[in-house]
Specification:
There is one protein chain. The chain has 105 residues and is α+β, with helices and mostly antiparallel strands. The protein contains 5 helices and 2 strands; from the N terminus they run E-E-H-H-H-H-H. Strands 1-2 form a two-stranded antiparallel sheet. Helix 1 packs antiparallel against helix 4. The N and C termini lie far apart (33 Å). The model has no long low-confidence stretch (mean pLDDT 85).
Length: 105
Amino acid sequence: MSFALIEDGVTEETCPLCGRPLGSMNVDRHHLIPKTFKGTQQFFVHKICHRKIHSVFTEKELYKSFHTWEALQAHPEIETFIVWVAKKEPGFYSRTFTTNTKRRK
């Protein structure tokens, strides 16, 4: 899988979370280590994938436990999401809601 690391203006073509082609619509940038915790490295991801990550995890959880693509992909809720979104076109976007588990934190 080729990741879309933003470095010197050069990007690869697949989303590091879901593995689908990025396309040119509905693309966001994600910091594996949140900016709040001084993360600087950014990756292009689908907007829906980015919103899903932030709907499931707090910034602190991302920093402590989910700061690699493998860790994110191994989480059960993200696994289910990846299976679902794999059937969608690269430009697909639908509103993502915050999970009840995150709301309770």
